[in-house]
Amino acid sequence: MKESVLTMSGVTKVFSTEEMETHALRGIDLTIYRGDFVSICGPSGCGKSTLLSILGLLDMPSSGQYQIEGEEVSQLTLAQSAYIRNEKVGFIFQSFNLIDELTVYDNVALPLRYRKEPMSEKQIKQAVEACLAKVDMSHRASHKPNQLSGGQQQRIAIARALVGKPSMLLVDEPTGNLDSINGDAVMAMLQQLNAEGTTLCMVTHDPRYADMATRQLHLLDGKIIDSEEHSDPKHAFEIPLAQ
Asked: What single Pfam family name could you report for this chain, choosing any that match (predicted)?
């Protein structure tokens, strides 16, 4: 029997002003199982970013239930959300979100320095070095992000997302700021991580990359209108990232 990483039931999100209410999500029911690679696609304004924010505990639903590994997380405080997010969720963003003032090593180490259970410097060093090796960026550990290409920065962002061994990776348009060669290579890396057991949930506008997922969800007007299973997902080109 498959083990669920997250389960949503009847999740809604309403943004209210004095003039109007905007229903961004309307009754989302979703289960993601360990080892899944799920893509979420749909037109602009359909609720993709709102759903990803709630999945990553960056925002709370207006109603409904949301569980991560069996723990109800839909009504947490900001501090509680931050702890669970740091322990269980890894983020990969379109804009990389690296800190230019920090070295590559310190960017990757950053999530570990905010763990609820403190880690020793030796433990942090081992974890960071292992993740940099996984994305073939060990030789750039002492560089600053602005000394790297876009493809290299995205690899560092992937290492940072992996370093805390999260239950799932949430991936927001990971190729949006990359050329096609680096985009294909980043997607090949994500697909390889999934093959090794990493659970992925990715928002993308690119149908080529959506086809690489084992499950595709289609959103429209805040609702999941279609779900497709891919037993033989498309593979990315095996092109190395620009050095």
From this structure: ABC_tran
